[in-house]
């Protein structure tokens, strides 16, 4: 399935990436990999010694991956990203972090 990555570098650390096999390696992609990917179908059969199917034992349909919507506000995310990047440079820090929440709902607005 195809993933949509809005805002590139500004949200890259949050959204994460997938590997060549399509499975999440970092960020939300990793945390929700099973939800986003779904599951392959399975078929259990019995064959004779010549390799011919003689019995269909079980069948499980594939499960499509689901969509995921984040509560990130892209405007606030961009502001937070620029601010933390500047603060890290100004203070010669190795890294920095910021999390903005909506105090009424607890929704994550920037990270």
From TrEMBL:
Pfam families named among the record's database cross-references: PBP_dimer
UniProt GO cellular component terms: plasma membrane
Which Gene3D superfamilies does the annotation name? DD-peptidase/beta-lactamase superfamily, Penicillin-binding protein 2a (Domain 2)
Primary location group: membrane
InterPro entries in the cross-refs: Beta-lactam/transpept, Beta-lactam/transpept-like, PBP_dimer, PBP_dimer_sf
Q: Where in the cell is it found?
A: Membrane
Q: Biological process GO terms, please?
A: cell wall organization
Q: Which UniProt keywords apply?
A: Carboxypeptidase, Hydrolase, Membrane, Protease, Transferase
Q: Which GO terms describe its molecular function?
A: carboxypeptidase activity; penicillin binding; transferase activity
The Penicillin-binding protein dimerisation domain sits at 2-57
Do you know which PANTHER family this protein is assigned to? PEPTIDOGLYCAN D,D-TRANSPEPTIDASE (PTHR30627), PEPTIDOGLYCAN D,D-TRANSPEPTIDASE FTSI (PTHR30627:SF1)
State the name under which the record lists this protein. Answer: Peptidoglycan glycosyltransferase FtsI
């Amino acid at each position: 399935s195809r993933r949509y990555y809005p805002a590139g570098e500004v949200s890259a650390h949050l959204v994460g990436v997938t590997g060549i096999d399509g499975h999440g390696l970092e960020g939300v992609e990793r945390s929700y990999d099973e939800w986003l990917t779904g599951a392959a179908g399975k078929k259990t059969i019995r064959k004779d010694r010549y390799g011919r199917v003689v019995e269909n034992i079980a069948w499980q349909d594939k499960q499509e991956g689901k969509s995921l919507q984040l509560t990130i506000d892209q405007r606030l995310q961009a502001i937070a990203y620029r601010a933390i990047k500047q603060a890290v440079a100004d203070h010669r820090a190795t890294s920095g972090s910021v999390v903005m929440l909506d105090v009424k709902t607890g929704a994550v607005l920037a990270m």
